[in-house]
Amino acid sequence: MCPSKATKDGQVYDAGPYLPRDGGLDAYRRAAARCRGCPLHESATRTVFGEGSESARIVLVGEQPGDQEDKRGEPFVGPAGRLLDRALEEAGVDRDEAYVTNAVKHFKFTVASGGKRRIHKAPDLREMSACRPWLEAELRLLRPDVVVALGATAGKALMGSSFRVTKDRGALLRMPGEDDGPYLVATLHPSAILRADKEDREAAYAGLVADLGVAAKALAESERGPGA
């Protein structure tokens, strides 16, 4: 993963000081609501922490909350979330037994001309690095068997800045430095499929389902155990 601290003009970007000393996911969720580890909190409506089963064996990591997620305070509740739910069902992954989160917990956006519509803007390395302690804490508390990186930002947050989804998507990898840690499968972010040209969208969606199928298979084999 990338370094947990980054600076610009002498300012430290780091969520680390806001993490609680102990407690479970609820304690971390409450603490994240007060996070000021980078400037993104200034424009966002609220922190959007991860949600799902505390016994989840699969964790799905996206980039950041979108407009609807920012307003509702829940991850993957907009159009991309609905597409992800459908793909998970087709791939054989029980959404109710998964945990969904984002590499960055605040919505980064620009305002369109007219001053009403908020347009997604990708987080930069400083913001990803600053928010990394929250993602690490979620993975440490959940101890999943499989992690799915949805898109390039999630892949880089989990595997380092040199990671390329286009190169490694659909492959069954191990998290860096963890030979017996969770498997990782990278794929496209659902929002990228929604933005694709109509003629390309069906193939892109089929690729997402196939990649999630790799994660589902790894999950099933992990449940059976080695040699089963």
Explain the overall architecture:
With about 230 residues, the chain is α/β, with parallel strands linked by helices. The protein has one domain (about 10-225): Uracil-DNA Glycosylase, subunit E (3-Layer(aba) Sandwich). The protein is about 40% helix and about 15% strand. The strands form three sheets. The protein has a six-stranded mixed β-sheet with strand order 3-5-4-8-10-9, sandwiched between helices. Strands 1-2 form a two-stranded antiparallel ribbon. Strand 6 and strand 7 (about 120) form a beta hairpin. Helix 3 packs across helix 8. The two termini are about 30 Å apart. The model has no long low-confidence stretch (mean pLDDT about 90). Pfam families: UDG.
CATH class bucket: Alpha Beta
List the helices and strands in order.
EEHEEHHEEEHEHHEEHH
Query: How much of the polypeptide forms β-strand, as a percent range?
Result: 15-25%
CATH superfamily: Uracil-DNA glycosylase-like domain
Classification by helices and strands: alpha/beta
InterPro entries: UDG_Type-4/5, Ura-DNA_glyco_family4, Uracil-DNA_glycosylase-like, Uracil-DNA_glycosylase-like_sf
Protein name: Type-4 uracil-DNA glycosylase
Domain Uracil-DNA glycosylase-like: 49-213
Keywords: 4Fe-4S, DNA damage, DNA repair, Hydrolase, Iron, Iron-sulfur, Metal-binding
What keyword list fits this structure?
single chain; alpha/beta; Uracil-DNA Glycosylase, subunit E; six-stranded mixed beta sheet; 8 helices; 16% strand; iron; Ura-DNA_glyco_family4
Please provide a brief summary of the model:
Residues 49-213 form the Uracil-DNA glycosylase-like domain. The chain is an alpha/beta fold.
